UniProtKB/TrEMBL annotation:
Organism this protein belongs to: Nitrincola iocasae
Molecular functions (GO terms): hydrolase activity, acting on ester bonds
Name recorded for this polypeptide: SGNH/GDSL hydrolase family protein
Pfam families for this protein: Lipase_GDSL
This protein's UniProt keywords: Hydrolase
Domain of life: Bacteria
Amino acid sequence: MLVMILAVGIGITAVPGVSATPYWVATWGASPQPVWGPDFMFPTHIPDKLHDQTVRQVARVSLGGPRLRILLSNAYGSQPIIVGATTVAIPNKDGAVVADSLRTVTYGGHHTAVILPGASLISDPVALPIPALAQVAVSFYLPNATPMNTFHWDGRQTGWVVPGDQTASTILKMTDDSAQSTTARPLLAGIQVEVEQSAPAVVVIGDSITDGAAASLDQDSRWPDFLAARLVPHGVAVVNAGISGARLLSDGMGDSALARLDRDVLTQPGAQSIIVALGINDIAWPGTAFVSDSTRPTLDELIAGYRQLVEQVHARGLRIIGTTLTPFEGALPGTPLDNYYHPDKNVLRQQLNDWIRHSNTFDAVIDFDAVLRDPEHPSRIAPQFDSGDRLHPSDAGNRAMAESVDLNILLDQIILKEF
């Protein structure tokens, strides 16, 4: 009876399926990047500006829950962004959604909100039960002229930009030339779900190999996706903080790992174990069309960067697992980046891998080099795991990477933290 009186006194209303003390865990992510100009070698796949248009994106969560909330980012914007109507729903084919799953999203109780320059915006909780490893469609309307300065370039998932406010439409209307599909992710940076008790998350910070550059489109076949399928039965979420072109020490197609560590990794709700899979772009970019006049970092400089990552992660009481760098001889043949590989670069990769394996700097090590290399030619990726560009693993390679992870190096730490 006392509990009932107290509950009434502070205005608490019980909601079926929702815990009295909500716990939120990050269950999906797309690390923000600055949109580059037309002089860069890769197209952005989004318009320079959106105005009176709806963006609909699909994302597969790892852990599910009875409620979710979304995170939008204006990290690289120079002016406020007005976000209009927003919905979430269960996706159907070709941009359609299941009608009775449509839910309105609010921000502080309002249907519109402002994302300040350099800031992010988190929504109110939305009662939409989502199973583990299920997809969610997020739609938001941009009523004003909105320069596109913040996005995630390589989403490996088809999304849509359509005219007008179609956030509540079950089937998108492609009514004019401004309608388009895109594999980039404007503004959407994260999804969190409510869980009954505190749940841990594994956050993977990496480059294009983690981002899934050669993974099959719309198939959720990046290696962190396969790892999520293995961890979900243990109640563990996985967040992919990979950025294609990412580097450990320098900015590239996104901020350096050291610059984005807090935002993309350490502040993720529930983060307990961090996997770092970075370094190949630091070694291979210099001298290519990306940064033709840049100097390759030394082994000591790379080690110093890794040590700083480890120190910052350990300062938060979290666990950090290092991965070796995968083979890349002959990478990107027939492209403007066909000098991405050089024997001297491979020597540095091998030296760095030796340090990762044997320095005892990390709490544990995952040897992706040993998983993917060709036993007959160890500086190359094995043919059965090669996507065809001799750098990025295929779906089969991604699966092999995920299956090689000893879950005990993740789960043991989680048990220790909980008890």
